[in-house]
Amino acid sequence: MPLFDYIARDTSGRPQRGTLDSANVQAAAQVLRGRGWRLLKVTVQQPEDEAWQLFVQTINPANWMPIRLADIELSLSQLGVMLRSGLTLLTALRTVAEHSSKARLRRVWQDVSDRIQEGASFHQALAQHACFPPLVVQLVRVGEDTGSLDVVVDRAAKALERRRVLFMQVTTALAYPAIVLVAAIGVATFMVVKVIPQLQKFLSAMGRKLPAMTQSLVDVSAWLQTNGAMIVGGMFLTIVGAYLFYATPQGRLIVDRWILKIPIVGGVVRLAATASFATSLSLLLRSGITLLDGLRGVEQLHRNRHIANVVNNARESVLRGGALAPALAGQSAYAPLLSRMVAVGEQGGTLDEVLQEVAQYHEGQLQVAIRRLSALIEPAIIIIVGGLVGFVYISFFMALFSAGGAKL
Hints:
By secondary structure, this protein is mainly α. It folds into three domains: 3-47; 65-160, Type II secretion system (T2SS), domain F (Receptor-associated Protein); 167-408, Receptor-associated Protein. It has 16 helices and three strands. It has helices spanning 25-34, 50-59, 69-84, 89-98, 103-117, 122-127, 134-146, 149-205, 212-247, 249-259, 265-286, 291-301, 305-319, 324-328, 336-348, 351-403; strands at residues 3-9, 15-21, 38-44. Strands 2-1-3 form a three-stranded antiparallel beta sheet, covered by helices on one side. The longest helix is centred in the middle third of the chain and has 57 residues, at 149-205. The protein is extended, with a radius of gyration of 30 Å.
């Protein structure tokens, strides 16, 4: 279908410019008037070469980049601002779609807008797209029921922001030492496989013997070169096997449960899960969602399947008439303080307020744990990397001294 450029004014009198796919000028004008806009001008775009358009769409990274939660967070923030400014939902959604930087996200918001215009509710339209977390869908449903959609959308954006910050804190603490370790192993492997064997050939031609330390590295290099293909193949099969095992429900449950038992790292993951549980459930309860629905939403937010199963079991316990606190205790999923504070909140009828305080406390504890983890990992990495690279370099220079005639 051809594209039409339009100029119009929305219900608040603000000018609107953009493009629209339509069969003809009359159909485009009817769509714009259906939005409640006052039409000023509609003109058909000059057709361009279709092959060129296809080429541009193919090489444009915005057409294939995935939608991140950060993109959803930004769009919800923009949507909340426009709703508070008095714009209608459809107008705000189309504005968000037009200003989205990614083509996929633009198509998602356009589809949400079209579904609402066809009669679906906002939360039903969001639920059709997997990029929107269940937390956002549930909050929007409550906002539609209570008439406070602008407030709820803003809360959803802030909830995604806090979740993103927690995730970034954990990954940042673990990424730096991992990168340093991989780089050090790469440098050491290059010297063992490439540099030292060349030095051995030079010394052999001179009729000199390698020092014992250097000879041990040469032996390692020879072994790696002989069995390199087998090692790479074994590593590849191990990675594929581990991935396939983790892809099964039982395998993922076993791995996720094992992660929580790793010293220090498991504690950080548990603190992050506790802060996420308390923040999300507190937000859902304050927005008017029932405890059972809130637990269902929190369960779907957890990436760790063991923790998600604990939340599911807690929900079933509440459904049978039991209390929430005992179901969360003793499962090695959350910090012990959570169940005790939940018991206090249940007895006092202030569960949402107590959970908010629990979230703030554990977010602070998480930051302390991350700093402690960094303080422990960095010296260990320095020792390991220094020992590995130092041994290789000492062996290398000993070989050079031997080549110069020095007796070692």
